[in-house]
Design goal:
The protein is of the alpha+beta class.
Amino acid sequence: MRSTRPTVRPEDENGATTIVFRLANRTVVRFTVIRVHPTCERIGSFRVRGHAGVNRVKWRGRLNGRPLAEGTYRLLLRARGAARDVAALNLVVVHGKPLSVRELREARNANVCGRMSTVDGEATETALRGAATPPTDDSATPSGSRGKPPLAEAGGTIGRGAKTLGTRFAKAVEDSDSVHPLVWAALALSLLLLAIAAVPSERLMRVGGEALAYKRLEVALAGTAALGAALLMYLSS
């Protein structure tokens, strides 16, 4: 499944994109629309009667006649009678001025839903139950489940674990002068990176940390690596 345009403009007469997909047989297919950034929520679904071969469906970024809010949306395709979603497509709904190449690339890759990258229907429902957040406007219909995104929970767990390890590490050093300064530097860096990774994406976005919001997993991995390096240097010193 692919689209002729990566973005859609619900308010623009010429702002639609065409979704292209192939079917082996004639059937009805369901498109499930999920907002994956800046919130994680199931918006709804729509059905299309498809035929064998290549199908083309024009989509304007609307659901039930109402324009969707700005954000990144994931469309999951499932044929009638199928046990799982078989294809997925990311599209960006835009209002106002066009996005730059960098902004478009970041928007298409943005995802606060964690496991939502899968096309498996069961995994999608599981992710939504644990990751849905309240809608930010009237154009979205939430799935009813609320909570923190999986990445936020993982970041919090990593942050708490890092704090505990840091406390134990500090207690184990009775004479701080005997520890190499690089050990303290690596420990401080790891705690800083893990603390940043534990901050929810929405808060980072509000304070201008868009780049960090999109790279939280990489920041968490870097913090873990720095913590490991600090422990290795301490043990070998």
